[in-house]
């Protein structure tokens, strides 16, 4: 791979890693949601710094072309991130539903008490 392209990729993924870490430190992103992004950046930097590792792993697993190995790794990582976010959204939907029901019960109880005193 071209050295300029490798340097550009290293700068991009290093900057992205710093950005994610800053989001965590400022409290705009929870650490548990940032771990997969941090893992992705670290893996990309590792592959960029040691491209021989990609060739070794891809031939050991049986891939003919190392690019196919990288695409598979990227797809798996993006699926893991999507699944993680889907679980978080599902949990929040259930929590919102429960809170809505509790508010409705409290409003009904308050309405009953106000009717009792009228």
What labels describe this entry?
single chain, 4 helices
Describe the overall structure.
Helices cover 89% and strands 0% of the residues. It has 118 residues and is mainly alpha-helical. It has one domain (3-117). Helix 1 packs antiparallel against helix 2 and helix 2 runs antiparallel to helix 4 (66-117). It is elongated.
Q: Element order, helices and strands?
A: HHHH
Q: How many distinct domains?
A: 1
Strand content: under 5%
User: How confident overall, as mean pLDDT?
Assistant: 91
Number of strands: 0
Note poorly predicted spans.
none
Helicity level, as a percent range?
over 70%
**Count of discrete alpha- or pi-helical segments spanning 4 or more residues:** 4
Rounded to an integer, what's the Rg over CA atoms?
A: 24 Å
Intertermini distance: 81 Å
Structural class: mainly alpha
Shape: elongated
- Mind describing the biggest β-sheet? none
How are the SSEs ordered, and which strands pair?
Blueprint: H1 3-25, H2 31-49, H3 51-61, H4 66-117
Helix pairs in contact: 1-2, 2-3, 2-4, 3-4
Give a concise summary:
By secondary structure, this protein is mostly helical. The protein has one domain.
């Amino acid at each position: 791979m071209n050295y300029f392209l490798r340097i550009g990729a290293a700068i991009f993924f290093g900057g992205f890693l710093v950005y994610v870490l800053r989001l965590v430190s400022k409290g705009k992103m929870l650490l548990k949601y940032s771990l997969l992004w941090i893992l992705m950046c670290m893996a990309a930097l590792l592959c960029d710094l040691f491209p021989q590792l990609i060739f070794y792993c891809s031939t050991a697993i049986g891939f003919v072309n190392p690019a196919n190995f990288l695409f598979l790794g990227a797809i798996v990582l993006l699926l893991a991130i999507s699944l993680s976010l889907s679980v978080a959204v599902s949990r929040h939907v259930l929590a919102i539903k429960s809170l809505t029901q509790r508010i409705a019960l409290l409003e009904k109880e308050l309405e009953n008490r106000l009717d009792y005193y009228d």
